[in-house]
Specification:
Length: about 140
């Protein structure tokens, strides 16, 4: 199948398919005599794998590792599990950070009168360097 058919079958855009090939995430597809990329079921399965991993938020680097593990019949499921658990721990940290950000913003919003006056506790809170909004770097 050509790139358009592979894109339709996988739900991955043509542009992203080309990008995945350029970055080495996806093997370069063979070409027809006319120079068109040709994909088989294996290529579409790889695209589906990549799409699902991207939908879960895996980085391209991690997807490459997962693809390598998926294609390696000598793999250990423990390696796959460890990679997924590491990513889950990072997601948990991101969630905690986002929840903290939301709580801080909610505090500012609660303090705001939201009327026709120019005074704005949200802007004042953002302008304060010693505000709890300031994150350590």
């Amino acid at each position: 199948m050509n790139i358009g058919e592979a894109a339709a079958a996988s739900g991955v855009s043509r542009k992203m398919i080309r990008y995945y090939e350029e970055t080495g995430l996806l093997a370069t597809a063979p070409r027809s005599d006319a120079g068109y990329r040709l994909y088989n079921e294996s290529g579409v399965q790889q695209l589906l794998f990549i799409k699902r991993a991207r939908d879960l938020g895996f980085s391209l680097e991690r997807i490459k590792t997962l693809l390598d593990l998926w294609q390696n019949t000598d793999r250990h499921s423990a390696d796959v599990k460890a990679l997924a658990q590491q990513y889950m721990a990072e997601l948990d940290q991101d969630i905690m950070h986002l929840q903290s950000m939301r709580q801080q913003l909610a505090g500012l919003v609660d303090q705001c009168h939201g009327d026709d006056e120019p005074a704005c506790s949200i802007l004042d809170g953002l302008a304060q360097a010693n505000s709890p909004l300031a994150s350590p770097t």
